[in-house]
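I am writing to request your help with a piece of structural work I have in hand. What I wish to show you is a protein chain and, alongside it, a tokenised description of its three-dimensional fold. Could you please explain, in whatever detail you think fit, how the structure tokens follow from the sequence? You will find the record immediately after this paragraph.
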Amino acid sequence: MLRKLLLPVVLVFVSAVAVADRLKVGISTDYPPLAYKQEGRIVGIEADNATAVGAILGQKMVLVEMPFEALIPALQSGNIDIIMSGMSVTAARGDQVSFIDPYMEIGQMAILLAANAARFSQSWSIYRKGVRVGVEPGTTGADFAETELLEAKVSYFNNPAAAFAGLRNDNIDLYVHDAPTSWQLATSQDNGDLLSLYAPLTNEQLAWAVRKDDARLAQLLAAALLTMKSNGSLRYILNRWIPVTVEVR
């Protein structure tokens, strides 16, 4: 269905595209619903984004799976051409890569045991002294905790599953992570004892990235994204994977 939706716009761009026969797309598959594995296949928002962009550009998009921390080095070394992996735009990353216009706005959210919801019913409660907060190292959630939650006790977990265990074992009070992790709780049958405080703690933008010296590919991707926004295919992709309403600009 997605390919049928995009077919009318393919002809608009094919004549203008003269890039490699295929584009290698770096993606980390530990971030549902942005990118993850399902029955051995890479699925999610970014996988659909790659399919849509490939149709618009008339290019084969090859998904190259790797850990998130390896994406920027792989891009800089030429092992991949694009990063499409739910990457937040930050100044530090912007020094290393060129970001395309954002395709989605998200924020960090706090996850907790449902039984403890009353303790954090007020928006200011997360900032109280001594609150035990879990984060994933190297993420914007960790940046938020380290700069904004100065009186919290911060612990580090390598992935959401480990942090969820920390909540259940009473090692932490809250787990601060990207909104997609909270969205997954809305449809998961395995984490019914957890809930998210759906008030975003930060305002972040997700975008694709290319090498600093690849201005031509950046222009092509920007034009493809504009087409996806105008013809409704981006909204279709987001609505397919996200169980809650988000603002796309």
User: Anything to note?
Assistant: Confidence is low (pLDDT under 50) at residues 1-18. Residues 2-105+205-241 form a domain with the D-Maltodextrin-Binding Protein; domain 2 fold (CATH 3.40.190.10). The first strand starts at residue 22 and ends at 27.
